[in-house]
Predict the 3D structure of the following.
Amino acid sequence: MTLHVNAQQTKVTAEGWDTERLHLDGAVKDLEGASADGFSENVSGAVDQFLESWKGIVKRTSQSAESTADGLRSTAIDILEADSKTDGLARQWIGILREIR
Amino acid sequence: MDRNLEGDTVTVTITLPPKPSPVPKFHANGDQVIATGNTFRTVSSILDDHGSFIGGEAKNSGLIDGEAASAYDDSTKPLGRHADAMSLALRDVANRVIAHGEDLNRLIMRHETLKGDHEELVRDIDRLIARTKPLPTDQAELEALAADCERWTGYVNGYEAEVRRWVSEVEECEREILAALRGALTDQQVDRKYSGVSDPADAARESMPSGKDPKAAKSWWDGLSPEEQQAMIAAYPEIVGNTDGLPASVRSDANTIALDRDLAELGAIPADQRTEDEKTRFKNASAADEARREIAKSKDPSTNLPYVAQIYAYDPMAFGGDGAIAMAVGDLDTARNVSVSVPGLTSSATSAAGNAQDVVNLHQAASYSGGSSTASMFWIGYDAPNGSDSGGVAGEGMAKAGGERLADTLDGLNAMRSDDFHLTAIGHSYGSTTVGHAMTDHNPEVDDVVLIGSPGAGDGAETAENLGVGKDHVFVGTNSKDAVGKFGESGWVSPAAVGSGILFGPGTGVIAQLAGAGLGNNPAEDDFGAIRFQAESTSRGSIPNFDDHVKYYDHDTESLQNMAYIVTEQYDELNDHRAAQVHDPWYRGPVDPEAARTPTSPDTDHKP
């Protein structure tokens, strides 16, 4: 029987999304370390606002990456579970497709 | 203030100048603002990578089921578009913030000047007022006072106009940056302005010449618009940062982004979850960061300000993970004197901090020696013998390959500069063999060659003349007790093989001997014909040893002082510090006259 998912590929791609999430968390941390220091008084408030806003923007992007990774894994597992009723290989892949990062 | 002079009808009117208004208070720091801009550029680069991931690797989800696969596509495509838009938006803001920081630095300097002008005017006007108490009775004095008051009124008016101009420029500058910040504050603003917009970096990348001709690279770069250049730096930092021929400041901006991005991305991954490649990249990025910080700890004697590293090359995965890093103190784009220090055995990215200290010392010694502007770079840009390939120190293979890369780097420095500058290549230890091969095999345009602690100048250099710069421009520093400096001597057992045996075990030494170990002639010998300079150390050992091999860049040593003279073209000064060459009579082993001389300790750092 042919599986409806290339589980190895899904594993690699989902891990890629996990890694992206971590990279984006690193970006958020960088923004947290930035400040309005050095800007003139008339500008510093806007810089604070900008930093606050972009921490949120990048954090949401990170969360999207995380949920895409989880969604991809769970979709693959759903498909494999359906397949596993008739295929032993699918049962093996369900165990392998777990989140590492 | 009028005065009628007695017995005369002349009236002299004296109008005191107005008091100048104080300069408005202004607190800002352009360098801190630029640092914030650099953070934005780094984050923009991470978002750019994220967009590339979504548009590339992430497309292959592994889902074969049609409905699931298209649901995945439908959900990820907008994420990719948004990531690209975010990257462009933040890059734009980053560039404006950096430009704002540069503007602020200029405005701060003018603010300081205006404050000085104000103080001076107040003092001058007080003096004028003092001249009116009491008013002079002499007509000539009165007329002189009136003329001075009129002149200073003009000065005050000019000052007030300058203050108004400065205030207006500050306001304009603030308006621009506020507009940039407020125009990219939300996801909606970002998507509206940047979604679907093509990245100017992509077209610029397409037009980049293939091959490694540094002149062609420079010409390509000069032909890009400022917008395309900034885009290339942010989107392709690995390429811009490591392309010979591009300006050093541009390479440094790009390498700063790549380094900070690696530190941010990999630092966010828990250490126990990093892959082997990630571990290597993070280790080398951390080493580069350490070198950068090491440089920032020291001060440039000519400005008394902390040094800022110019990152000329950064490739943490080069040479199977050994990494490539080159950093300079001083400005490679503009300095009259440029030196490139090539380290030897055990060099890899992780030794960058030690090499950074070496070039800081050289730069400081050059400054204190009264040389004109200097930039000193360490170059870990070749696969030097270290770790598992340490045995390579006994042969010239790695030096030959390294010589080719070094010649590319030297050609790149020449291509990026359109002015006449003085270039010195300095090779230490195995790095001197690498410099030798660069010169004999590829003939780059170099003014002076310096070989220190040299185990041999490479098999292409029978004599100094073969290095292509004229024997009067080949300088050699060898401490008489430096064991490695004796590797280039002749004998039935290769000293290089003996050295390998001492360093890495007898087996390696035997293998090295059988493999025909040897790194060429000893450049400190009289037959070689180079200028040998004094390079003894007051702490030298009594017998040949390896400690004396690593003192050449130490402050207050003969070698550092003499290298500073060479790098800054002060050849006359060097003449007083020449050393007698090693000679090798047929009836006995080589004789080094320097062993009998008492070493000196010149003051190279002006510290007690």
Q: What stands out?
A: The longest strand of chain B covers residues 374-380.
